[in-house]
Amino acid sequence: MTAVLEGFATIGLVIALGALLAHIRLVDDQARVILSRLAFFVASPALLVTTIADTDVHGVLSGNLVATAAGVLVPALTYALAARFVWRRGSGDTVIGALSSSYVNAGNLGLPVAAYVLGNASFVAPTLLLQLLVLQPLALAVLDADRGGRRVSLRDILLRPFTNPLTLGTLLGLLLAVTGWRLPEFVGRPIELVGSMAVPGMLIAYGIALRLGPGLGGGIPKAELALTTALKLVVQPLVAYLVAHFALGLDGHPLLAVVVCSALPTAQNIYVHASRYDRATTLARDTILLTTAGAVPVILLIAYLLG
Question: Transmembrane residues, as ranges (predicted)?
C-alpha cells in the first residue's frame, strides 16, 4: 500500500509546511484568508475545469452512484438532525458540519488511492461528479443565502449556484467532457497552471489555521467532533457497503471501489468553504485532521477484507 501511504504523506507534509510558515511568523492569519480566497475564487474553478474535462462522465450513470449517494445521504442527514435538535446550529453551520461528515477527498487523495487500491483512477469519478455537480452547488446555495441573513428559497437553490465560481468551473468542465471539445492550447494551459495552485493553496492555508487557530476541538463540543468523525470514517463506508452489496448485488472489485471511495477522509476544500463563509471553521478543520489520519487504517482494513 505504498502509494496510499505516499498520498497521505504528501498531504501531511504540505499541511506541515503551512504550519511551519506560521510558526516562524513568515505568514500570519491574513495570509490564510488570502490563500483561501484565491483557492475559492480563482484556482479551484480552474482546477475543476481541467479535472472534469478529462473525466469519463458515463461512469456517473453506473449503479455505483446509487450506493455512493446513499453513503453520503445517511451521515449528512444524521448530522443535520443532531445539529438541529441537540446543538441548535444555524443553517450555515449545519451545512458545513454535514459536509464534514460526508464530503470525501475525491481529488488530490482519491485519485491516487483509486489508482493503487482499485487499479484505475476512474473509479473515483462517480463520487467526484456527484459532489461537484449536486452536493457542492446545493451546499453553496444555502451558505450564500445564510450569509445574506435570509431564509433559503427554491429560487436560491436553483439560481444562486450559477453565480458561484466553483459551480461555473464544474459546469464548464462537464460541458467539455460531454461534447469532447478542447480549449485552445493558449487558453487551456494558463487555466491548468492556475488550477495547479488550488490544492497546495488549500493545504497551506489549512496548516496555517492549525498553528494559529485554537487547539483541537477548541470552541466546539467534543461530542460534535466525535460524531462528524465517526459518521465519515465508519457510517459512510458501512452504508455504501450495505446498499452496494445487498440492494444492488455488487461484489468483488466493484464493491471494493464503492466502499474505498466512501471511506476517503473529509476533503480539505470544506475548510475553504467554512473559512469563506465563516461557518463552523473549527469543526471543519478538526474533522479533516482526524479523518485524514484515521482513513489510512480504515482504507487498509477495507482493502484487506474486500480485496
Answer: 6-27, 34-53, 65-87, 94-117, 123-145, 157-181, 193-213, 225-248, 254-274, 286-306
